[in-house]
């Protein structure tokens, strides 16, 4: 890394002054964000309007005392700890510190320059304090948890003014299956700038760490597929193999129809997981995984409504372990064996549905009533909203997160790249080979494809 450049905190360059002036306006309640990077503008919006973080906050709050994480994530913390410790001397020579947090933003460890560590301690940038955006505003660790690429937060881009003399760069390590954050590796400098190569270094570290997770996911998937085939050899009942998050590694043809996912021919690659269109099934699978972790000899059953069925179907869970850790469950349909799952485990509490979505146009936030949104389309990690005001970028990254936000709000996932507003479908077009396309009523009357796995769900939702 290049030598760090120090600056005088009493003076601001023109670019930093522009950001600081925008921060002052936005913290006062104005929405003028000229000169602010879009990703920072989106983060500020979350901090002010969603999390209501006080911009005058001077120190991070204490983290929740007990935060559980999967045992297999320990390998991530160990790998990041090794890489952070090996870099500590170099970062220390630049006057910086390296920190590791878990997926909630709780600081687990830090290394680096002693003088900088003492300054950091005054802001509670230390073990067992929380640096999520919801707790401490825009910062390298918390904002990285919501990003799919390395982030750099400079000076006045921090939401809390007390942190404006810091420059931070962080990257999240994500589960290769669920894409949920597991940990963050972050480098911070006080009254200095980080080398221009820091983003690339963090990105490479994340890639190398996630290769370990990918190998682990493949081993877990292979073990689940082997358990599936073993049970299948002695049973004619429909079967599925699911991971602890309720995602399906493999299902036979009948179970695939019931769950609304592809069947077993050909078998998927073990790291590929399918998300069933049945929230009740996913909740039951998560509960079964929790029970199996506590008691490896546990098995259980419940009843759920499956696709294309008017009566509930019995399902049973049988846990599968690999070298002592749970990799998932084999689920048998039409069979009731083991402890009954409590109904409370299946009944998720109702949550308030959003009345609008937040999008960005240049440096402004656009608040869109749901009725004005025709459909959402993913482009990598970005999500674009199409509707009465044209095409706007969503403030929420990732189509999965947007889909979860709009559950039961009249929107439906019809393709891996599209979520549509059912009330904004103008026509349904059927092609020669049976493909379905939805003609939306946005200004361009866009044709939205329906994937084969979602075709039955769409027909049922539209009653066609």
From TrEMBL:
The keyword Coiled coil does not apply. The keyword DNA-binding applies. Residues 357-464 form the HTH LytTR-type domain. PROSITE patterns: HTH_LYTTR. InterPro entries: GAF-like_dom_sf, LytR-like, LytTR_DNA-bd_dom. One of its GO terms (molecular function) is DNA binding. Keywords: DNA-binding. This is LytTR family transcriptional regulator DNA-binding domain-containing protein. It comes from Amycolatopsis rhabdoformis.
